[in-house]
Amino acid sequence: MTETIEKPLFSEEEMKTVNMHLDKYPTKMSAIMPILWMLQDKYGWLSEDNMKYAGDLLNLPYEHVLGVATFYTMYFKKPMGKYHLQICTNVSCMLCGGDKLFQYVSEKLGIKNNHVTPDGIFSIEEVECLGSCGTAPMMQINNKEFYENLTLENVDKLLNDLRMKAGANG
Amino acid sequence: MVKIILKDIPDLAKVDVYTKNGGYEMLKKCVTEMKPDDVIAEVKKSNLRGRGGACFPTGMKWSFMPKGNEKPKYLVCNGDESEPGSFKDREIFEKNPHQFIEGALIACYAMGCKAAYVYIRGEYWKWINIMEEAVADTYKKGFAGKKLFGSDFSVDIYVHKGAGAYICGEESSMLNSLEGKRAYPRVKPPFPAAVGVWGMPTTVNNIETLANVPEIIRHGGEWFSKIGEPKHPGTLLYGVSGHVNKPGVYEIETGIPLKSLIDDYCGGVKNGKQIKMVIPGGSSMPPLTREEALTVKMDAESLKAIESAIGTAGVIVMDEDTDLIKVLKRITKFYYHESCGQCTPCREGCGWMLRVLDRLDKGEGRIEDLDLLINVAENIEGNTICALGDAAAWPVKWTIRKFRAEFEAKCKNDKYQLPVLNKVHSIRHTPAYDNIRIYNENNVVEDLIGKVQENLNREDETFS
């Protein structure tokens, strides 16, 4: 894979954001994390092409970008479900039933940690403490919204709602 | 009851409400009326100590920064907050972000920093958005940017989003992360005050520490030094979780008895049960037994006296029915997952401890395993570049020391044979070791091969 990418992956508008991030730091290399975030937000995960493109933007070798992307758990190195469910099972959540919640969701969806359902709607991940200890157990969806004080009942409802939403959007 | 950070003012997170309540006046006072050294002197007088866990005096830390402007200097605000059990910084971002920003800008003025970078963990998506908006408001109102209040002082403040790595909370790895590298901790010295982010002098402060600064300037260092315990003054944001009726973040003076915190503020232990164990400051701190928890005061010195530490004041309460082996296994699994892999003792040791704890959890452990665990923990502690090694070792070492009877009760006797190597290791300093050595050599090897295979088969389950 030596050919360069002909078409830029970012639009002009997005390049403005890239430049804004570049202006924040004295070195170009520092902008790698925000740019990987932008790519992941746009494409859902970081493919080899995406990472190479980030490297081209910042004059960094692909190996460096890969090194950074693999160090951090929140960058997905493979496609995840439309709704990526991140359930905390660390101490505080575990004391309030977080591990049981994870098992329940895992069994209900029939998938293991870091796997995607065949229809591509859900994927689950057992994550470490997300700083929601006072409202345990909790779940984060797609690295964004927190859902706190969960019980088996309201998780059922939440999953159904998400499935409906995924169906409605096609 | 003094409240310094989480004040009872509605909508304080909005910049207009904050400025109406005296916000950013202290920044103006510092920049227009005070010399940088006076600001540092005031913070020194307040005896404010870092809220990130190490409790290092903040004023002293600031004074380590070189004077003069030959090189650009930076302030990095540590909002990585990934220690299990602590969730205080997000409360500051949500309820009083501008007081933190003001504190950060005052710190920049005191140390002559060119810019402040607010590093927030990537999982805090909602709070990153809040902070970005708050920072934009600060610029709009003219409290950050070029030539503040007509003086020569210019400062910038940026929000940097992390991407999920516990290790980034360690100050030198945070600097590597900001530079766009893998977040490996650095060997110290040189300390960040000499060679920090991008090779320039840098100070790393916790969010809560900086949020205290505007009030210290407003009321004076002496006022602050008289709140709570004299040796560790001020208030702390105690994040209480686990088996309590009203978990949450409570801002209370230092030195409050832990019993009062649990009973009076958090409504006691759930279902009227007894306490079995309390972790006083995030999962890496040595745990407290029930007797200790009922008598100890919550401040750095009191906890140090009973060989624990205040950490981030993230209190995790466990009731009498808690399975401590499961808890310890989960804590160790966390450190195994989060070890960056730079130092061998931590990278390998965490995996070893996890495997042994898994064995204990399944009821297949032996009494010797407990000493083996302590042995491994002690070989991690102090032998790594950063404090994550210690953080992984302490809970294992102290939980077993303090609750040995419970662990022993779950150990199997005789029926189950340990892998030979572990067995040899755990009795190394006892007379039984000599007996092993005179044991027929061939038998040992045969036994070993069988047991190692057995161990490998089980490993797949543990790490799936």
The tally of strands of chain B reads: 11
End-to-end CA span of chain A? 34 Å
What is the averaged pLDDT score of chain B? Answer: 90
- Please name the two chains that share the biggest interface, counting residues whose Cβ lies under 8 Å from a Cβ on the partner chain: A-B, 47 and 55 residues
Q: State which percent range the strand residues of chain B make up.
A: 5-15%
> Order of strands side by side in the largest beta sheet of chain B?
6-5-11-8-9
Can you characterise this structure?
The complex is a heterodimer of chains A (170) and B (464). Chain A has 170 residues and is an alpha+beta fold. Chain A is 47% helix and 10% strand. In chain A, α2 (32-43) packs antiparallel against α3 and α3 (48-58) packs across α4. The radius of gyration of chain A is 18 Å and the shape is elongated. The two termini of chain A are 34 Å apart. Chain B is α/β, with parallel strands linked by helices and 464 residues long. Chain B is built from 21 helices and 11 strands. The longest helix of chain B has 22 residues, at 441-462. Chain B is globular and about 75 Å long. The two termini of chain B are 49 Å apart. At the A-B interface, α2, α4 and α5 of A face β3, β5, β11 and α14 of B.
Short overview:
Chain A contains 7 helices and 4 strands, in the order ααααβααβββα.
Give me some keywords for this one.
heterodimer; A: 170 residues; alpha+beta; 4 strands; B: 464 residues; alpha/beta; four-stranded parallel β-sheet; 21 helices; 11 strands
Layout: helices, strands, pairs:
The complex is a heterodimer of chains A (170) and B (464).
Chain A: H1 12-24, H2 32-43, H3 48-58, H4 62-71, E1 83-88, H5 91-95, H6 98-109, E2 122-127, E3 139-141, E4 146-147, H7 152-168
Parallel strand pairs in A: 1-2
Antiparallel strand pairs in A: 1-3, 3-4
Chain B: H1 15-20, H2 25-33, H3 36-46, H4 58-63, E1 74-79, H5 89-95, H6 97-111, E2 115-120, H7 125-140, E3 156-161, H8 171-178, E4 202-206, H9 207-219, H10 221-225, E5 235-242, E6 248-253, E7 256-257, H11 258-265, E8 275-279, E9 288-289, H12 290-295, E10 297-298, H13 300-305, E11 314-319, H14 324-338, H15 344-361, H16 367-380, H17 388-402, H18 404-409, H19 420-426, H20 431-438, H21 441-462
Parallel strand pairs in B: 1-2, 1-4, 2-3, 5-11
Antiparallel strand pairs in B: 5-6, 7-10, 8-9, 8-11
